[in-house]
Amino acid sequence: MALIKRVPADLGIEFIGNRRLCLAFSALLLLVSVGSFFWQGLNYGVDFRGGVLIELKTKGAADVGDIRNRISNLGINGATIQSFGEADDVLINLPSAGDNTADAQPMIDRVKAALTDVADNYRRVEFVGPKVGNELREAGALATVLALLGIAAYIWFRFEWHFAAAALIALVHDIIATVGFFSMTQMEFNLSTLAAVLTIAGYSINDTVVVFDRVREDLRKYKKMPLPSLLNTAINQTLTRTVLTSSTTLLALIALYAFGGEVIRGFSSGLIYGVVIGTYSSIGIASPLLIYFGLRRTDISLPDAETAQP
After folding, report:
1. What are the tens digits of pLDDT across the range 240-272?
2. Where does the Protein export membrane protein SecD/SecF C-terminal domain lie (predicted)?
């Protein structure tokens, strides 16, 4: 605590002067993310693509290659088998075989019969029909769009349109970059990772609002300071708070990633990446955009008491 108190309130780091470098980096990041999405897409989990998910515990260390061959010999195409957590845990994803559990049951029984001498017990067997998967994808996309619009509306009401537009662009940047992360790594994208994307949007806007609030306060306080210098001052004044908040959040997320198990590995990975990107966008994207949107002091509504001052 004593060390934190010694940190200067204004660190004097030149962020706005390097805004073109930040914007160029973000443009490259978005280009890679969008390119990866259209080139190889997302590795949808059973939640979104439909199919059967089987998690089993094997007798001893799992031989993924042997299990893959056994399922392939059944004539089941498109199955994916991977290690899951411990050495004796295996996750099997089977393609959809109809619109309900009854249609998929014969395939599930065949797989279990082929793995009789390998499986110790089956921890879960889940089925999602293709229609349900499509509906979940559409609902997830709609939830993301509505979240963005709701956040933009709040910022517009809370601040001015310049802030709302900058915040919305930064949020879209964070979401595209996070979805691109899942596309590039081919980590499974399911309902939990979608929840991580929406959580990142909320976390990012929290940082952005803190910076914007200080910007508006400084616009009222420093009547003659040039806008780039004022924005840089506002960012530096909130930087310690931003870094400390992000660091403590990352400590918890890293613990989840390390000890939370395979079930939430994708969720925690997405949040770790998103917190870093969200913190960066609040500083390097949202604030510099205010310059390009032509923010002026006359755009800020002032209380009557301040308006009356000379």
Report:
1. 888 888 889 899 999 988 887 777 888 899 899
2. 113-294
If asked whether residues 69 and 174 sit together in one domain, one would say no
Q: C-alpha distances in angstroms, 201 versus 31, 178, 194? A: 20, 10, 11
In a domain, 3, yes or no: no
Q: Residues 206, 275: one domain?
A: yes
Number of CB atoms found within 10 A of residue 270's CB: 26
Question: How far is it, in rounded angstroms, from Cα 184 to Cα 118?
Answer: 33
The dihedrals phi and psi of 91, each to the nearest 5 degrees, come to -115, 125
Which amino acid does the sequence have at 182? F
pLDDT tier at 32, thresholds 50, 70, 90: very high
Query: pLDDT tens for residues 82-97?
Result: 777 677 788 888 776 6
Q: What is the pLDDT of residues 144-192, one digit of tens each?
A: 888 888 888 888 887 778 888 888 899 899 999 999 999 999 888 888 8
Residues 140, 59 share a domain: no
Q: Are residues 197 and 293 in the same domain?
A: yes
CB 288 within 8 A of CB 163: no
Q: Using one digit for the tens of pLDDT, what is the confidence trace for 207-245?
A: 888 888 888 888 888 878 888 888 888 888 888 888 888
On whether both 121 and 145 belong to a single domain, the answer is no
| The model scores a pTM over 0.70 | yes
